[in-house]
UniProtKB/TrEMBL annotation:
Residues 1-378 are annotated as: Uridylyltransferase. It holds the Pfam family ACT_ACR9_3rd. It comes from Prosthecomicrobium pneumaticum. InterPro entries: ACT-like_dom_sf, ACT_dom, HD/PDEase_dom, HD_domain, NT_sf, PII_UdlTrfase/GS_AdlTrfase, UTase/UR. This is Bifunctional uridylyltransferase/uridylyl-removing enzyme. Has four distinct domains: an N-terminal nucleotidyltransferase (NT) domain responsible for UTase activity, a central HD domain that encodes UR activity, and two C-terminal ACT domains that seem to have a role in glutamine sensing. The keyword Transferase applies.
Amino acid sequence: MSDVSPLVDGDGLTAGLSRIAAGAGKAEARAALLAHLKTRLKDGRAEAERRLLAGTRGSGRHCARALSDLQDGIIRLLYEVAVGQVYPAENPSNAERMAVVAVGGYGRGMLAPGSDIDLLFLLPYKQTPWGESVVEFILYMLWDLGLKVGHATRSVDECIRLARTDMTIRTAILEARFLWGEEALFRDLSRRFDGEVVKGTAAEFAAAKLAERDDRHKRQGASRYVVEPNVKEGKGGLRDLHTLFWIAKYVYRLGPADAKARDELAAAGVFSRDELALFHRAEDFLWAVRCHLHFLTGKAEERLSFDVQRDMAMRLGYTAHPGLRDVERFMKHYFLVAKDVGDLTRIFCAALEEQHVKAAPRLNRFFAALPGRRKKFSGSKDFVVEHDRINIASDAVFENDPVNLIRIFHHADRYNLAFHPDAMKRVTRSLKLIDAKLRENPEANRLFLELVASKNQPEIVLRRMNEAGVLGRFIPDFGRIVAMMQFNMYHHYTVDEHLIRSIGILAEIERGELGGEHPLANEIIPGIQDRVVLYVALFLHDIAKGRPEDHSIAGAKVARKLCPRLGLSPAQTETVAWLIEHHLLMSMTAQSRDLGDRKTILDFAAVVQSLERLKLLLILTVADIKAVGPGVWNGWKGQLLRTLYYETEPLLSGGHSQVSRDRRVAAAKTELDRALAEGGWSEAERRAYVERHYSAYWVRVDLARKIAHANLVRDAERTGKTLATAVATRTFEAVTEITVLAPDHPRLLSVMAGACTAAGCNIVDAQIFTTTDGLALDTIAITREFDLDEDELRRATKVSGLIEDALSGTVQLPEIIARRAKPRARLKPFSVETRILVDNSWSNAYTVIEASGIDRPGLLYDLTRSLSDLNLNIASAHIATFGERAVDVFYVTDLMGQRIKRASREASIRRRLEEVFAGEMPADKPVAKAKAG
């Protein structure tokens, strides 16, 4: 029975239905019955939602049970009407008996608003016409009520036979609950199931369910800290709790899935009373979230996607705190509960091992483990190795020496040992021993520092340390960001998971495992003077997220306080603090500044100041970006970082980079002249060509591209074209370049951006050059889409053809773009502040405009179109997207080639670009048509 009051008056409903059925013909009675039940179901669900929104303690479980009770009442009434009035059996035979049984989730007596209704129509023998009619009547009524029903009609013998071979059916029967009909049939099924199926198969069932859980976790992302978790199927979700209870019920022969059965887990010694209370709290919270999610979306939605998270936070009563929005506080609570579920799983698995129903894992299957079944550690009497896993020698190990709470993780990493569940259970129950005294203990801090900077598997052990609760208690500042999510589309994981993943990536780089993907980082990391500062800086770089002040500055303050405690010297501490304060500098400079502009390199070098810092910052930046989430890192970002590094390195090492601009231009001309001569160009052709470019072209374009440009220009002239395009793939950088030769026009880049929008391409960079004879030579880099070069070239050729068609006037871009440029549905939950910066200090030759705000299809087209309308020439564009936030940077001059210096002009630029982000665009102006051939 439910421990909450029913949603409807069962006796009144029964009486009302009887009157309806007695006072009309069969068809009329059925229609009246259906209408009556629809009203009752609607009213009952509305009352369930009202109680849920009231938010009393236990409201999640109460809502699920009340909805189950409501459904029970409806099914029982339908059965009574079916067998008593619609298909009465005057002299029923033994075969004309039936039990209606709830199975699956419904069998637990817990239903979410959109859950399926899983029913088993249990028969003594094979099906009869009477039984078929009764089942059909009940099912059609339930379907007409708009319910999703899963059903099976089987005899007791069939159930037992199928349960022996099918683990899904076995699990369904394990949770079977009698609803109505012949209860003796149900008792017979339960007795035979326990004796003929369950008995002696506990190890088989536990192994199957745990393997099923692991497969499910892989499908859901293999982490409980993905920022759009699945409440039901994800790691740390309701299904994990269900799995625990299935196994517990099977192994410990527990009763029905109610509070009494959970109490039996404590009586069996599986959970302590506190852990059992944690089980109740986790289950209630997850049920509340799931029920709210179903009510909010009006369907069986199980994923906490971005577009519902804010509404869910409001329904559950969360409010904003300094540094954290309401939605972020809600999601942090969710992930903390998911972590609690993980704790309960480990404790439960420890109990299973004591009964020998669970196999032993290894810390890392790629590393060789220590041999032997049980052995002591050399020099330590507190720990033992059991089946290649570290365990405690006695229950008093941590009480006798709290440093062992750190030492156990240090040993696990050093000897590549998995953790014995008994040890982890004792760790979790000993967290109160981690106090101020232990945090200041030199030995504990030495062990922790060695673990963070380990050359083995620090990511795996730090994650276990975090899941056990030790990491957040030993480093309280880390505890503040445990389970903290950032409400944006850029970050895929919670802050703590991101930090731990970044350590793992750094360890892979140091081991040389990512040389093909990160050649520069792989090359320079062996020469790092102090690898410890790099690991500590990476471990702490986002530790101040969620605070009102800038997290980089606040994080540097944390480092200056924490590093001496960990045993770092003043010089090491200052380096760590500097890296944290500037951990975004290299990424933002590489992605959002013109690396061909000398001022960019000089300004960056002035901040970095030393070659060692440059090396540390490059490696930290690579690991940071790569740990953000799948697909965030790409070869283009790697190339930008390498370019910035190579341009800055000579400045910091006293190299040749101070050569004057005139000498660099002259050297570049000579280099190209020599290459063209080898390519068969005459001296007259070479002399004429090199005079067509301004000095900016010579210092910003590498030799290979200069040669390609020269051949494109010569081929176009020989065929009489004023419009020509060329495409080239850059496989390692994961971009494809499209170069356009056309008569110079302020709207040229805008047309190219529009064509890419129409083709569904993402532009990441653009270089714009004008020749002395009035031609434009513009190159854009678009994100690569296909793995094979021939496929990518085919796609890029179609895009370049669309650009040519738009420039020649054969297609009208605005119409195509209007169809494509509808706001993305996934962006609706986000609000991004629009910021327009107009700055003359970032370049000596150009005014730099940085436009950031909410991203959308067609944004770059609208921005470049507006800059053209403002009579600005764009020299280069650098496009970066961070989830829902776009950061587009343009190096511009006025039509006279001068920087923008009047305040009123800057104000008009800011105002116009703000209107673009607000969606206010004037009608398109015509573009001068170019002659294609």
